[in-house]
Amino acid sequence: MSETLEMHPELGREVEIGSIDRELHQLWAEDEARTNASLINLAVYSERPGALEENSRTIRELTREHACRALLIGIDRDAGKTSIRAWITAHCHLSHGHKSVCCEQIAFALTGRATGRLRNTVFAHLNSDLPMVVWWQGELSPIFSERFHGLIDRFVFDSAEWRDPRESFGRIEEAMEHSRQMIIHDLAWSRSHQMRVSLAALFDDPVAQAALPAIDRVEIVHHPDQHCAALQLLAWLAVQAGWRDGLELDLALSGESRGGYSFENQGGVPVVATLKADPQSAAVGALVLRGGEVTVEVRHEAGARFLTRRLEAPGHAMEAPGPVDPVAPAEVLGEQLSRGGRNRLFLKILPRFMRLLAGREDR
Amino acid sequence: MRGDWRNRAEHMTNPFREDLVSRSTPEPCTVVIFGATGDLTHRKLVPALYNLAVDGELPPGVKILGFARRDKSDEEFRTGLEDLNRKVSRSGHDEEVWGSFVQNIHYHRSEFGDADGYKRLAERLDEIDRERGGKGNRLFYVASAPEFFDDILEHLKDAGLNACREGCWSRVIVEKPFGTDLATAQHLNEVVNRTFEEKDTYRIDHYLGKETAQNLMVLRFANAIFEPLWNHRFIDQIQITCSENLGMEGGRGGYYDKSGALRDMVQNHLLQLLSLVAMEPPTDLSADGVRDEKVKVLRSLRQWDTPEKVADNVVRGQYVAGHVDGRSVPGYREEDRVDPESMTESYVALRLLVDTWRWSGVPFYIRMGKRLPKKATEISVHFKSPPDVLFSAAHGGLPGSNVLVIRIQPDEGISLRMVSKMPGTSLRLEPVKMDFHYATSFGKSSPEAYERLLLDAMAGDATLFARRDEVEEAWRFIDHIERAWHDVPGDQQPAMAEFVAGSWGPKEADDLLRADGHAWRRL
Ligand SMILES: NC(=O)c1ccc[n+]([C@@H]2O[C@H](COP(=O)([O-])OP(=O)(O)OC[C@H]3O[C@@H](n4cnc5c(N)ncnc54)[C@H](OP(=O)(O)O)[C@@H]3O)[C@@H](O)[C@H]2O)c1
Fold it and tell me: Which pTM does this prediction carry?
């Protein structure tokens, strides 16, 4: 036990699987001044070694704004030994400087064949009636099966972590077919949220709105790890602006246009979009639309606390700051949880994104 | 070229807005604030606009033009605003955002009564529109003392500023107090409506911008379990309490002594809360859909239109010296800038009856007072007791009935009191409380009421603003009481009750409820 405590100080007290409920109860009985708060069940799944402790620190931060019962799941499928261990703790924060508001956390480590018992073991400890949010970290493994996603209300993943996004998105689409209640959130999509809000704000300006039919060039700068985020942003732009797919293959064939996509707007004007990967860039560093003498752009310098929104047209220039999306995955998740909703817009652009993704990889 | 674009853009919508925010879109405009060197502008309006900018909610191209009489440069005006924003802004003060935000703030020096000042204002606004390009939308915020409202509106009209160009809008936000009685409110409404159309008139009631007030409709109409019980068959009584521990600090006495609790708080904020609690489900969530239902409640209020009825249903009071929060405090009549023989109420308690099918026979009790033990605003819905056959006196009887409490401020939230069995071998019943706190469940702070309301006005959504008929109906009800208090011969006037500062109000207010077999909820 003492060895365990040394190994996992962050995870709290190690407890027998069969006595988790009793131990949790005791945890609350120890200090009556604390208030237990919970709006969701939040399960965080990872197969990365050491992830349990790291995720526990993340949940501590997240619970400042999102009261939840946290279930941390650490999986080692390849381990020879079969074992299930569990730890409980509470993350407490002072609310408005006086009341101590706490969220309980149960951490599970499952190894070897015990990983097959994940569903029964872990999901027996949900807070009843509260929605079940799963944050899946890393590649989708065989554990992401019907039996698993059938229980989920919201499924959060990060396509930036995937080696083969096309294949993984295919599995997500299948899962959505099967588990229709499940709402999906790609953190990569959330990373361009404020870019989209800022672009939308710029297009509230009638000058920008009137110039939309003339837009014929789009440039998106992104970090090399955030190709999906950039491509989703492009898919959104094309869907919302009503651009049809253009002659992508032609462009792909001419060497200098690598990273190029072509569309055709509602008036038949060709629109060329370029995605540039830049290691110095923020996740999505720039979104620039040009047409005639008009430029509409949103830039996010890496590390800057605000986006720059800019609109330039003859005799008309405007610049204003806008909020940025957070960088750390936990903060991105926090923002996403605050926004809630059914994420309909993402579902709307998903087929287009998948087409762009396929087109890109076919080249 | 630019003109071309503008014409083309008139019938377009912004395709990128879809699903990003579930609210109507605020449009770029110039916000002109009358009384811009005042307290409200510095403490509330500009910090609200700044916080909207921080959250990225302020449409790009919003300009702010402060109008007041003092001689100030843009720079001086901005510095004063910055000093206060540092102190009061909800999200703190960020140099970078402020640096960009403040570029859009300008100052216009003029007297409210100076026609020439408005001509110059019109020129200045045209200049701003030219520089900014795009539409020339204008939002006039009248944040002056009420005696200037007429002047400002008339001059706006004379300078042609009320009229908007094609494709643009011109709106006015009017601060409280909106009149001091029905006649002045009607007069003001006429002046406003001569200048602006009703759809472009936004009468602020910042209580409606509060999160919990907005949540009232959600609570009632998005949950299936409350509405079937929300009527005279299941509800015994409803109480609305607004208590303040402050008195007349900071020179407030001057204004307050002319107004009083009834006019300052009940006519607007508390009757608005009452309307939200008592209204029928609206046909839709449009501004008029909701306001049509709210005004029906005000129209259904039984009128206390004789001094006798007022004496029977309304208690007015003043505090005498006492202790609040461990400090000794003076009595109301000894307060700074208060008339030592003042007959203005610092406390009021009312019994109201809403004569509708739904509320027949259910009393609504409202109380508001200064120098009460603590600051709190809440609505409590007291349900009827179940039949007493099972848990009769033999078992100690029922310990009170169900109470649903909606806390508006502070510590916004909702609680429900239920009866439960005490653990043990005997049957003892005790009340228990299920409690929901906004702050505990949602760590994020809610936007300030003014943020929401300014954004709504820019978006043309008047749902959370009072409509002309609402204001007038509320005054109609209040006027009878004011008249009974002040316009009848002294010996027939209902008495002014006294209570010790720091207590929960006069004994007479307790008697008012006791007569119905009720008691004020203990907060
Ligand atoms: N303060 C609040 O928190 C609050 C809350 C709710 C409602 N309100 C309402 O909002 C309104 C304003 O309140 P406030 O506290 O901001 O008042 P205030 O601090 O007294 O400010 C009054 C403003 O009016 C200007 N002014 C006065 N006479 C003028 C004239 N003849 N010509 C041009 N400008 C003139 C003053 O300008 P100079 O300084 O240049 O003279 C100042 O900017 C009132 O109706 C009040 O009831 C205020």
Answer: 0.83
